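hey can u check if this looks right to u? its 401 residues, i copy pasted from the old doc so theres a chance i mangled smth
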Amino acid sequence: MFSSLKHMPSSIYIVLFGSLATRTIYFMLWPFMAIIFYQKFDLSIIMTGTILGIATLLSITFSVYSGNLSDKIGRRPILITGLLIVFFSFIPLIFLQSFPFYLVLSVGVSIGKGLIETVFKAIISDGIQDAEIKKQAFYWQYFCINIGGAVGPLLGVSFTLYFPRITFTVLAIIYLIYLVICFRAFNQERKKLSGDHYSLIRSLSIIKKDSSFMLLIIAYIIIILVFGQLDSTLAQYFSRENIPALVNLFSYLIAINCTVVVLFQFPFLKFVSKFSDNVQVYLGIILLAIAQIIFSLTPTLFYLGWIAGIIVLSFGEIILFSVVNVQIDKLAPDNLKGAYFGASSMYMLGLVLAPYIGGVLLQLSGRTMLYSVMTLMCFVIFVAYKWAMTHHDRHLRAPST
């Protein structure tokens, strides 16, 4: 587990630290935006879902464009831009916690996250040639993300909701410090990466013709749609029950989710490694479906039921989210790494759909129907992923036939 770290260049350590810091801050903010919009500004479920969905859509759009642009002008300018956008999103809220400034924060954090994480993935892909070490680097990045996910909600429920001015001041300082670190650390990066580079339209045209990649993205869009019910819709469900303890329960569920992944990611991946990659993913989809069934049947105040569902969900997440960047890296041509990782952010369309679809189902049909529909979505995921892998296998066999 730790031996692979010795073989990674210093730039990867900076990326891993950045993944830890930025995701900690993200989880201090994003899961609580639905609660803030309701408690502070009395927004409806659908309006809240629309705001969060639009913000996520902007993140996806900027990710796609920035990935292609980073192939041409380098990773550093895009990374610095993303960090600056988030930094300046905090500044207004230091002085006044008004609705327009929370909108600015939602949009700024979303756009910045899209730019930053696209570049992080491309830097890992650029910086490591050995396939196994690169896989371990992606695993370590996911590990750091989940440490941030475990710590962030606990900080969020303690500070973001109750001490916003101090919180946004500290976060702005942290982002400024990391921005300076990245500016200095990547100062020697080449302005132009090697290989032929294409316009955004040409890159997207090439990607669109890669059927294996597109089917994989469709599968992950639906995976994110199902997982997204945890971050947005469940928060709204708990907040509208008007039981203060449920808000704390929500933060604990998010923390448990990430803590389970942190503690069991490497042991569980080693345990399932005896199965083929496809069987591992199918297992992850089955665990995801079981979690939705638990969520649909658990009484609101039966905390152990929610915790059991989160634990099952977490083991499914370990498999499904650990392998996605490795698969994308294998599919992407060397001169289109940034474009492919940027385009892969299209699977975050699931987060655009999640708060809206989840909010509508919750408002019109209730929580049981919401999670019953999500269970059916897991079957659709299974079919979409199977098609993706079948098409990929045919493509690999094609030269010999």
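Residues 3-186+202-394 form a domain with the Growth Hormone; Chain: A; fold (CATH 1.20.1250.20).
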